[in-house]
Amino acid sequence: GEIIGISGNNGAGKSTLLALLSGFLRPQSGSISIDGVNLEEFDTEFLRAQTGIVPQQGVIFEGTILENMTLYREGRAAEQAMQLAAKLGLGEIISKLPDGLDTYIGGSAAGRLSEGVKQKIIIVRSLIGNPGIIFFDDANANFDIKNDKKLVALVEEMKGSRTMIVVSHRPSFLRVCDRRFVLRDGVLVPESAREPADSVTRANSLSLAGA
Question: Is 0.90 topped by the overall pTM?
Answer without folding.
Answer: no
